[in-house]
Amino acid sequence: MSGMRILIIEDDRDAAAYLVKAFREVGHVADHAADGVTGYDLAREGGYDVAIVDRMLPKMDGLSLIGALRAQNVDTPTLILSALGQVDDRVKGLRAGGDDYLAKPYAFSELLARVDALARRRPKGASEETAYRIADLELDRLSHKVTRGGVEIVLQPREFRLLEYLMQHAGKVVTRTMLLENVWDYHFDPQTNVIDVHVSRLRAKIDKDFDPPLLHTVRGAGYMLRDGAR
Amino acid sequence: MALGKLFRTTAFKLSLAFLAVSALGAGMVLSVVAFEITALVDDETKQTIAAEADGLAEQYAQGGIRRLGFIIERRTHEPGSSLYLLTNFAGETLAGNIERLPPGVLDKPGFTETPYETTDDSATDRRALARIFVLPGGFRLLVGHDMRDRSRIGAVMVKALAISLVGLAVLGALGGLFVARRVLRRIDAMSSASRAIMAGDLTERLPVSGSGDELDRLAENLNDMLKRIGELMAGLREVSDNIAHDLRTPLTRLRNHAEAALRLEGDKQDYRAALERTIEESDGLIRIFNALLMIARAEAGADRSALTDFDIGEAASAVVELYEPAADDAGALLTAQIEPGIIARGNRELLSQSIANLIDNALKYGAPEPVLALAPPTAPGDYIRPTAPPRVEVDVIVRRGGDNVEIIIADHGPGIDAADRSRVLDRFVRLEGARTRPGSGLGLSLAAAVAHLHRGEVRLEDNAPGLRVVISLPARPAVLAEPGVQEASTPSAAAAL
Questions:
Q1: How many other CB atoms sit within 10 Å of the CB of residue B37?
Q2: How many structural domains compose chain B?
Q3: Looking at beta carbons, which residues of chain A come within 8 Å of B350?
Q4: Model ipTM value
Q5: How many structural domains does chain A have?
């Protein structure tokens, strides 16, 4: 999804300028607020697809800002950026109303993928789909059945969840860290290529005997499930 | 030592309070004594009066009122005589040495206390203890004794009380000052020592007098505390030395790559490659930072919000499942033997990460040495056999061991010499041979810190051949390690990194 409006609330002007420029380069519109109060005012006026909020801000800290926005029924998806990357910091951030949490330092590709994933999110309370379909690949969440071109594919439970997550974010880059967090619920760095191996096993099951390939590797970023024909 | 300061000391105030209490006590003792002595004197006087009255009654029986008057006249002229007064029905004095009495005294028979004036001296303010008798014909007889003795005793008592109070006050004040000075001197010594310690000299200790009193006990406890702080500081210094040493290496590498790229006269592609290497290096540094922070927080007992009851076996098999395909791809065999239903309270994320690190280590370093080794003959005819299977085999075992849960990650690689085993639990220690391979050297330290957080331990054992890392945890630790780093202090520390 391009042409998103992104609000960056970050007191480090260098970092903010870098983000604004980087988001513009990939076709988004980014505004910057240097302190919590300005950021709150801008966010409340609305119209943003995603807000990126630094946790430690002058005048109003990031978590209070998100809490205040949620109290005003502003449900703009927010991603918290923080130097505090431990699990309990993350839990606090999400509890305060944040939708995602990314520890500094981060790779821009990681931030971009997460912002994309957030902006696509359905409004809260909307019922989730019970089945996904990309090209001729189908996943039924109720019967836990996966078929491609009508042929049933047998997946391990974890492979099923992996595919489910990829299909939820079809057409978007999904990073290894996002997979580790959402499919395995781990927040540490496994140091080796464990995720890649899982993805390549899944790919062997859903792509090997079929055409066109759907599960693509995005170099330097992660993976994307997409209908190659489009 | 300023006097004002002395007066403000607790010791001095206590002395004053005790002084007041003992003065009160002395006053009470003297009052009781005075009262008892007075009662005794009164009693004696009454007995004397009774004896004299008996004598006079005898005379009266023999010679009537006339003889009584005569006897009284005679007795009053003897030196040191008692007091007598005989009056007729009109109240006129017939005989006796009492000049004047307050009106109405003679109306009531029995003992009475009354002021009086004598005939032979004009001194006023005299009091007497007397007994009044009513005789037939309206005659009245008074026999009494002066009470000078009794009031003299009272005066002596008051004087004694005054003297002893002054003595007590002086002694108490001096004693209080002495005790206060003594205590104050020791407390001053302690506070100057603690100021020196606060100024940075952690080797300084509070003075202990050796008397074993409460101040000594306080000083000893504070000294123990200082010793503990000193140990922690030393540990911290060692850690920061290690951090400085082991982070400088990759930082230097990072800087060198950047410099080399600056000097590079290549095309765009070369610059790209150089930048990518730089990012790779910095990612490695970030990984080390994260691991260090994680260890620090685990050691400090933080992350308490993430404590839950969970199935350890289930957590371990989830990690095994995460690594299994990667191990398989690398030609290794990763197997799990999990005893079901072992529940523990702890931090699932940290334990999972520890297990992941240990599996990662085992897969990296657990390759069997490609030689045939001499095995100790365990049975006749048992000479030479291959001690190692041909590929990396890593076993993950979760089982109960007594009161503990044991999570075992075992390989069949070269293992670790017994001498090196405790050393490798320290941060950044990487044994020879491991230096050439990637890794931060923090996996075992993290496992040890996490085990410590759960009140457990990490043991390194011989897997004959190979290494067995045993994370041993209490089955259901009721409480986790003592709270450490305050929440407020972590953001700055993290931000500083």
A1: 15
A2: 3
A3: 87
A4: 0.81
A5: 2
